[in-house]
Amino acid sequence: MKNTILSLSLLFCLNFSFAQQVEGITVEQFFERLDGIKAQKNNDSLYVINFWATWCGPCVAELPYFLELQENYKDQKVKLLLVSLDFDKDWGKKVIPFVEKSDIKSDVWVLTNYLRNMEWIDRVSPEWGGSIPATLIVQPQKGIHAFQETTFEYEELEKWVLSFK
Amino acid sequence: MIRKITTVFFILSMVLAFGLKAQYSVGDEIMKINLLNINDEMVSTDDFEDAKGFIIVFTCNHCPYAVMYEDRIQALNEKYASKGYPVLAINPNDAEAYPSDSYSAMKVRAEEKGFTFPYLHDESQLVAKTFGAKATPHTYVAQKDKKGRLIVKYIGAIDDDPRGGAPDTKFVEEAVDSLIQGKKVPTESTKAVGCSIKWKKA
């Protein structure tokens, strides 16, 4: 009985931690959060927001560089946010196992209703054609909003990110 | 003669200087396309004398979005080829990065799906670069003007529902129907999520 309770609570904790980290959100919620971050005029963190999906080969290939960057600059207020465009039916099945396997510690937001509303692509950046991988950089204090629709090698990514520090 | 050569050279250098970075917008004249089809024959836009225009789709085998649109690309060709707007599908992906997008894999996929439209291999990636295609699937509707030049009339998504359940607007159909009726295309460009084209390493 004790064991059951223990394993149940352990299971609950595990679920809870993943539920915290991988989260399905709507496009509207995404912009609420993004606008919320941008409104913090005293916040000098640099947010690196990568749009990716488990089905996107180049995205998966460059993901380790983003994790490495996060690890190397975690003390210098560089914050990685991963926004997944996995299909909503897949996010429990594919995204969570992928996040566990890849040892991703950043928040992962899975956009659940992005397919029908194409205006959100322009809202992220008018430069964005809609293909992934794509990366957005936001620094609220300096009002920075920079965007690139491209794949990165580590050095290129680091150089681009540091250009905003 | 020398003048002619100079002119040709000038045009060539312009193409080399700007052509590769060109990105077509609505209203631009497109290049002549001449690429290898899955039946080992070259297909050119010049081959279609009766065509009033083309539905040009940059697509590929591997991308989940491209796969979701395969049947709709086929349906577009079946609906519009006879009305003068055949589909030309072009795969621009680097086959080294995506073996499933290789020329031989294209043949297999076209056979499996029974594609009725040319499925062309943009091996040099020059066509995709000149068009400014960034993703698959990515569609351009072009119409022949009175001088026979192909002019871009629509750029973007096929419709607004990648899953294909129930699109509110079928952008490509709307564009081609408008052109056939001699009307202005109501929505000239759209955006959609897609897979970035994998460029060869320089």
3D architecture notes:
The complex is a heterodimer of chains A (about 160) and B (about 200). By secondary structure, chain A is an alpha/beta fold. Chain A starts with a helix and ends with a helix. Chain A has helices spanning about 1-20, 25-40, 55-70, 90-100, 120-125, 155-160; strands spanning about 20-25, 45-50, 80-85, 105-110, 130, 135-140, 145-150. The model of chain A is unreliable at about 10-20 (pLDDT under 50). Chain A has a six-stranded mixed beta sheet with strand order 1-4-3-2-6-7, with helices on both faces. Chain A has one domain (about 20-160): Glutaredoxin, CATH 3.40.30.10. Chain A is about 45% helix and about 20% strand. Chain B is an alpha+beta fold and about 200 residues long. Chain B has five helices and nine strands. Chain B has helices at about 1-20, 65-80, 105-115, 125-130, 170-180; strands spanning about 35, 40-45, 55-60, 85-90, 120, 135, 140-145, 150-155, 195. In chain B, the strands form two sheets. Chain B has a seven-stranded mixed beta sheet with strand order 2-1-5-4-3-7-8, covered by helices on one side. In chain B, strands 6-9 form a two-stranded antiparallel sheet. Chains A and B meet through strand 5 of A and strand 9 of B.
